[in-house]
Specification:
Elements lengths: L2 H7 L3 H4 L4 H4 L4 H13 L3 E7 L9 E10 L7 E8 L1 H47 L3 H25 L7 E4 L1 H16 L3 E6 L7 E4 H19 L3 E15 L2 E13 L27 H10 L4 E7 L2 E9 L9
Parallel strand pairs: 5-7
Antiparallel strand pairs: 1-2, 2-3, 4-6, 7-8, 8-10, 9-10
Helix pairs in contact: 5-6, 7-8, 8-9
Length: 329
């Protein structure tokens, strides 16, 4: 076991000696199958494996595993197990896919929104003219409905088009901003949804548009509250991550703001499309919360990622930091 293997498996060579390899891997069925095939056939097998979180590595990791027969002159034949941690590489590929998805969705929805907004104005104007010609209050109720619905659809289209104009960036304390969001959503949470804070006190201030970031975080927290259906825990977590890549750009430091819930998770058939506009699993939802949040974070040069399984869904907001800004708790 070389030093890289010790780090990957979170165990020293001395502790691992005389232990079963499968025991070290938590009796992984996939690895057991691969080892058996190599012993039986003598052929080399390669596969991707997931390593469970450990005390050293808090998150699940993805590795390329290659097992081959190794012949020795002085000892019995042995198996050579080679592993390469590809977690970050896979995440970068997924981030690029999210960026492409966001760009395609944004272009599609903006074209659609413009096509809708123009006739809406004509519809509303015609209803107003018609209302002036009517003497009956009963008939005017119908034109009022037309005008009201036209206004509602126009507001929805404005949401789809997203904010315009330059960002109003100011140094912001992220933790104060998160506490403000908690105060906003507290009435919606009820007494059986608790909020847990896991803040990094060393996280520096960030140059950002406060109103836009509040809206993005608010959308994510409200989504978490909805899926919990009145009972569970929402965790807000902040960290500073060094040398993090967003798209094709590596940043020296990024701020990571995580919104985690212990709800049922996002179904597998929806995970590839949750950031597309109008995609939702909620009966009364518009499917705009996540794409709008992604757009607002994208305007800051950042990205929203997520991981989801039953009992744990985490949305991770990554925003580049300007090095040299003073830290605040």
């Amino acid at each position: 076991m070389n030093p890289a293997a010790e780090n990957l498996l979170s165990i020293s060579e001395s502790r691992a000696r005389r232990q079963s390899l499968l025991q070290i891997f938590g009796d992984d069925d996939e690895l057991r199958d691969i080892l058996g095939r190599v012993i039986e056939t003598g052929a080399t097998y390669a596969s991707e494996m997931r390593l469970a979180p450990t005390e050293v590595h808090a998150e699940e990791r993805l590795v390329d595993c290659r097992v081959s027969m190794m012949q020795r002159a002085t000892h019995a034949d042995a198996l050579l197990v080679e592993m390469l941690d590809v977690t970050r590489r896979v995440k970068i590929s997924r981030e690029n896919a999210l960026i492409i998805q966001h760009g395609a969705g944004r272009q599609m929805i903006r074209q659609l929104a413009h096509e809708i907004k123009n006739p809406l104005g004509g519809l509303r104007g015609a209803a107003q003219l018609l209302e002036r010609q009517l003497d009956s209050d009963d008939l005017k109720e119908y034109t009022a409905v037309i005008i009201s619905e036209a206004d509602r659809l126009a507001a929805l289209v404005d949401t789809l088009l997203g904010p315009g104009g330059p960002l109003n960036k100011q140094p912001q304390n992220v933790h104060e901003l998160l506490e403000y969001v908690i105060r906003l959503v507290q009435p919606e949470l009820g007494e059986h949804i608790s909020v847990r804070r896991d803040y990094d006190p060393g996280l520096p201030e960030i140059e950002l548009d406060r109103a836009q970031l509040v809206q993005a975080i608010l959308n994510l927290v409200q989504n978490a509250a909805v899926v919990l259906e009145g009972r569970g825990t929402i965790t807000l977590r902040t960290r500073a991550i060094m040398n993090f890549t967003i798209g094709n750009h590596r940043h020296p430091v990024v701020a990571s703001i995580e919104i985690e819930d212990d709800g049922p998770g996002i179904s597998l058939d929806m995970q590839d499309s949750v950031f597309y506009p109008l995609v939702t699993s909620k009966a009364e939802g518009h499917g705009l919360g996540l794409p709008v949040a992604q757009e607002l974070i994208s305007r800051h040069g950042g990205l929203i990622e997520f991981e989801s399984r039953p009992g744990r869904t985490v949305f991770q907001v990554r925003i580049p930091l300007i090095v040299g800004v003073h830290a605040r708790g």
